[in-house]
Each structure stands twice: as structure tokens, then as C-alpha cells.
Amino acid sequence: MAIKNAYLNSVYEDLAGRYPEQAEFLEAVHEVLETLVPVVEADPRYEQQNIIGRIVEPERTILFRVPWVDDQGKVQVNRGYRVQFNSAIGPYKGGLRFRDNVNLSIIKFLGFEQIFKNSLTTLPMGGGKGGSDFDPKGKSDGEVMRFCQSFMTELVKHIGPDTDVPAGDIGVGGREIGYMYGQYKRLTNTHVGVLTGKGLTFGGSLARTQATGYGLCYFADAYMKANGQSFEGKRVVVSGSGNVATYANEKATQLGGKVVAMSDSNGYIVDENGIDFKIIKEIKEVKRERIKTYLDYVPSAQYVEGCSGIWNVKADIYLPCATQNEIDEASAKAIVANGAIGVFEGANMPCTPQAIEVIKSAGLLYSPGKASNAGGVATSGLEMSQNSERLSWTFDEVDAKLRGIMETIYADCAAAAEKFGKPGDIQVGANIAGFLKVAEAMLAQGVAY
Ligand code: NDP
Ligand code: 2IT
Q: Which of 37, 117, 228, 390 could bond 5 through an S-S bridge, CB–CB 3.0 to 4.6 Å?
């Protein structure tokens, strides 16, 4: 759909013409640009200085070959990516995703979102993202280690504690970060905060593992409370069963909710008694198994093959925490028909544009990932601070800062939405509040990029 401002629309059309194959990237850009109409109309400098035309092009895109040797002695090749999208407000910061469907479109959409998310955290971090089409699932520890070492052997040339600080995302958790950190250290002979999500024995921050899931629930709690609602006594559906989903379950439960369904890419489980996050942690983090094995722990639960049906499970609160475009229009209609209060995104861009339209026009609360999942990268920022001062803070200290940041993000999104004529619209507020700080920094720095 055409964007209702000639300048914004021309930037978008130009981009769509240049990268027609980058569907996810174009989806993310369109979503942001259409909400910036009142901002661009209120301040002619953005068009004059072509801030929008600049912000949609990465400052630097790095593509590389990643060769590694599998357990059979065969040489395998994967593709590696790092997109350094925007450094206006701080060093590039953002995760690495290892999954077979990774391509430039996916890394660019994630990097673009990261610019605004990182700005919302209030911390000085620019936007970046990277990864590979290597999937650690089904690989041995030795294979994962050799892949990570090879990946870092090239990535090392492009990152640094004041340049670009990667972290985890889908397929990249503590194990992968550890292997990559070891290789970085070996190649540079430095022990610095160049990656976040590190192990607690070598510079990691307490509460980083929990941060995205906890932060999501802190955000949802603040948003619901502003609308006379809460987790107390509510049924909750959480998609995925990885890092974000597991700790979203823990915090939603602590706040009084009952998580009745979770999934992986093969299927979903329903447990009317509430899913214990510790069992999910055991299955996924320790055993690296499929979610259907939950039935071995809780035989009264149900397993359904195929992950998309999870949105039909009746609940009050939906927390998509798996992947992009997992909620389409039909799933959104099911959520509305189930009488939900809201959808709060833990994953990046889990709702299609059509789904967002259905959810918002039915009057449900809706928060975009760049606001409600910002707790992960915010706590990465806190890990960087601790590394710089060579100290580590207590769990409670980090958790309290995380909660404060999520409440501030909610307040900032609500205030920006109000100021630009869309009171209560957290999607619009998130894009505008995230954009303004980055745009101001770009203007102040001249035509630097
Ligand atoms: P994990 O790899 O720990 O877990 C991913 C989960 O999502 C798994 O259950 C996985 O199932 C499922 N999943 C992945 N891809 C698909 C797919 N194509 N279709 C269906 N299910 C899928 O990743 P995270 O928990 O770290 O990340 C989840 C989401 O949260 C992503 O969108 C990520 O970008 C976002 N995010 C992560 C942050 C972090 O700090 N880790 C911070 C902010 C956002 P299976 O086991 O079958 O692969
Ligand atoms: O999408 C995200 O914000 C992340 N995967 C976390 C990034 C980070 O640098 O902690």
C-alpha cells in the first residue's frame, strides 16, 4: 500500500525496486515508514537531509564464506553475514542468528529493527545484525565449535568492543557465544566485552539469559496496568520454547498468569495445569530435544503436530516468541475470536502487517517487538557497562535496571504516540520515539553516512 507522504513513498518505492527479493526487509521498512508520516511532515530537515533515504541503507554489509569440517571429515561451506546498519548513537549492536533459512533479507530486516529498538532502550547502541545459514540443530558440539571458530576467524576483522558488539539470537545461545568468544580471544590476545551473552565465569552479566523474556513481561505488565489489566489469573499462550519463550513463561507465571501452550517448529503442547518453565529448560537447554518430549514429563498434557495451530488455543494473553511472520491474518482472527486482551511481541516481527491490522482494529492491546523485546539488548548494554568498568552487578541490580528500562520504554512509546496524534498506539509510538533520537544524532553529525 502506498505510504501517504510523497517523500517517504518515493524512498520506499526506490528500495522495493532495488531489492525486490528482500521481502522481510521491505516488510520491516514499510511498517516503520508508514508510521513516520506525521514526523516527516512536522520537520522539513528529515527530507532536506534525506535522513530516511540514508537510514534504510546499511552503513556496511559484510558477506563471507564459512568453511568447516564435519564429524565425517567432510568440508562443509556456509554463508556468513554481518550488517552494520547504523552507528549514529553508538557502536553497532545486535545478535547473530544461525538457522538454515537465514539470508540477506532476514539479516537486513533484523538489523533495521535493531536501530530503533536500541534507541528505545535509552542506552548508547547503534544497530546491527548478523548470522549464518548454518543450523546448530542436529550438529555435535564439536561441529558447532568448529563452525563458530571459522565464523569468528572472519568476523574478528569487523567487530570490537567500541565498534560492533554481537550477541545471540535464534540458534545462538551460551554455547555458541562461548566458542566464538574463545576464538576471538585467541586471535586478538585481548579479553574485552566484544560479545554479550557470555558465560558468567568470563564477563557475562547476571540476568542476561532471562532478560528478553522477563523484559517482555515487564513491558506487557506496564502496558496492561495502564489499561486496567494484568497477568493475574490470565491464560497465556507463548509460542517457541527457546531463550525468549522459556523466560517469558517463568515471568508470566510469577506475575500470576498460567502458561497453557508452548511450541517449537514441529508442534505445540497444551497443558491445562500450566507449563513449568523448568521442564522446558531441561528439554531445550540441557537435552536439546523436541518439545513433544514434554509428554514424558507430564503425560496428561497434549501434543499437536504443526506449530501454527497454537493461536487457536484459547487465552487472554498471547506472547509470540518464536520467529517472524508466525501470526498471519487467520491466526490473528483466531486470537480475536478467543477474546484476548492483547498480543505482546517477544520475537522480531512475528505478526504480518495484515495480522497487526486485525489485532489493532479489534481493539486489542498490541506491542511491537522493537519495544517489548528490547530487554535482551538493553541487558546486553548493561553487560557492556559492567565489562568496561570490570565489575559485575548482582542479579537483583540488573533485574531492577531491566524493569526500569522496560517501564521507561512503555512510557516513551505512549508519550510519542500521544504527541503525534495517535494516543494509545504503541506501534506508532515505538517507531517514532526510536526514530527521533537516531535522526537527531544523524543530523548533528552531518553527512557522515
Ligand atoms: P532460540 O533459538 O532460543 O529459540 C527459537 C524458538 O523458536 C525455538 O523454539 C524454535 O523451534 C522456534 N522457531 C525458530 N524458527 C522457527 C520457525 N521458522 N518456525 C517455527 N518456530 C521456529 O531463539 P530465541 O528465543 O533467542 O529467539 C526467538 C525470537 O526472539 C526471535 O525472533 C529472535 O529474533 C527474538 N529475540 C531474541 C532475543 C534474545 O535475546 N535471544 C532478543 C530479542 C528478540 P525449534 O527448536 O524447532 O528450532
Ligand atoms: O533481537 C535482539 O534484540 C537480540 N537478538 C539481542 C541482541 C543483543 O545484542 O543482545
A: 37
